[in-house]
Structures are given as structure tokens and as C-alpha cells.
Write a structure and sequence with these properties.
With 212 residues, this protein is an all-alpha fold. Helices cover 57% and strands 0% of the residues. The longest helix is centred in the last third of the chain and has 23 residues. Bound molecules: zinc ion (ZN). Zinc ion binds next to helix 5.
Length: 212
């Protein structure tokens, strides 16, 4: 019984953690559940950016036709790897907590986290940038903060070759969160039109990736 006594005097780290403390991923899973109260799934026509007129969007609608609850499984969330840009803002808000839970799951596919970061990278003046901004605008500060924390965890689990993408995504989200806080502090609704007097007709590559 040598092995058993070794186990008792030196329990594996995982077993110890499950008794005494939460891992970063477990704490984060709890934060996600708190920050994202389940919302109802948008109707098919409102789930994606292009609806059934588009081959890719209709594939997503078909894939999720039986998912009518507030959340779905990590296995199903894997289908969304590289496809987050197909989701409408309300579809994104519905799918995001399930996707984030899959990203931080113990047996997570690393692609899930990498593509989450890629989604928030790229030229802020490109066409997709406006859609990406619209997806962020449906989130609260606390929800954006969860996204940032998930990306920090992704970063700590990745090889250094991908750091720049994850860092770019984190920087982008932090700017969005700051702007949201400023708007809330000023009592402006998040959807207010940008005043022309700010010089929004001039390109401002260094400001913060403003898209209009
Ligand atoms: Zn589409």
C-alpha cells in the first residue's frame, strides 16, 4: 500500500485545490455567471448579421435551431470558433457567456481563446469594425471586464507567439470599457450619435480606433 500512503501525505495539487480554493478558471466561471444573467435567444431572423440571405449566417441559424435556452453546452460553443462575427449584437449577447465558459473549461480547445482574441483585433476602420463595435455596445462594463479577464487567462495559457493578438484585443476592450464608463458618468446613452463638432469626419488613426 505504498502508493496509497504517498497519496495521503502528498495529495495531487488538483485534489487539494478542489477542497480548499478555487482555481482562477473556477473563479472566473463564477464571475461570468454573475455578470451575464441569461437572456432569451433572439429569433432566427435576428440571430445573425445577415439572416438567411447569407450562406454562412444560415448555417449558424440551422446549427443553433434547437438551442432555445439561455445557455448552451461548451461542445456546441466550439462550433462558433472563428464565427463570432456572424452574430448580431443580440445574438452575441446571448451566445457570449456560453462561449466564454467553453474558453475557460478545463479541456478547452486553445482555438476558442485565440479566436476570441482575433475577433477584437484588426483594422478599426475596416467594415467589420462597425459590427464589432455594435456587439460591444450591448455589453455592460462588468461584462466587458469579464471578457478582458478571460483574455488574460487565455494569454497565460498561450505560447508567446500569440501574445500580440491577445494584447491588442485586451487594449481594444479596455478602451471600450473606459468609453462606456465616461458615457455613463456623463449621463449619455451609449447609443447617442457622435457630435460632428468632434471632427469625426477626419481620420483619427491614433485616437482609439473610432469607426465613424
Ligand atoms: Zn452572413
Amino acid at each position: 500500500m505504498q502508493s496509497q500512503s504517498n497519496f495521503l501525505s502528498n495529495p495531487p495539487v488538483g485534489a487539494h485545490q478542489s477542497f480548499c480554493m478555487k482555481s482562477p478558471a473556477q473563479s472566473l466561471a463564477m464571475r461570468i455567471r454573475e455578470a451575464f444573467p441569461p437572456v432569451s435567444r433572439p429569433p432566427d431572423a435576428e440571430l445573425t448579421v445577415h439572416g438567411n440571405d447569407c450562406f454562412h449566417c444560415s448555417a449558424l441559424i440551422d446549427e443553433f435551431k434547437d438551442e432555445r435556452g439561455g445557455t448552451f453546452s461548451p461542445e456546441h460553443a466550439r462550433w462558433l470558433v472563428g464565427e463570432l462575427s456572424l452574430l448580431s449584437p443580440s445574438g452575441f449577447r446571448w451566445a457570449l457567456p456560453s462561449y466564454l465558459a467553453a474558453v475557460i473549461a478545463d479541456d478547452a480547445d486553445q482555438d476558442l481563446g485565440e479566436f476570441l482574441a482575433y475577433h477584437f483585433c484588426g483594422d478599426p476602420r475596416a467594415d467589420e469594425a462597425a459590427e464589432r463595435e455594435a456587439r460591444i455596445r450591448v455589453l455592460s462594463e462588468g461584462q466587458i471586464d469579464c471578457l478582458i479577464q478571460v483574455l488574460h487567462l487565455v494569454r497565460s495559457n498561450l505560447g508567446s507567439v500569440y501574445f500580440s493578438d491577445v494584447d491588442e484585443a485586451i487594449t481594444y476592450l479596455k478602451l471600450r470599457k473606459t468609453r462606456l464608463a465616461e458615457q455613463a458618468g456623463a449621463g449619455h446613452p451609449a447609443t447617442r450619435p457622435e457630435p460632428k463638432s468632434e471632427g469625426s469626419d477626419k481620420p483619427q488613426p491614433e485616437s482609439e480606433g473610432r469607426s465613424r
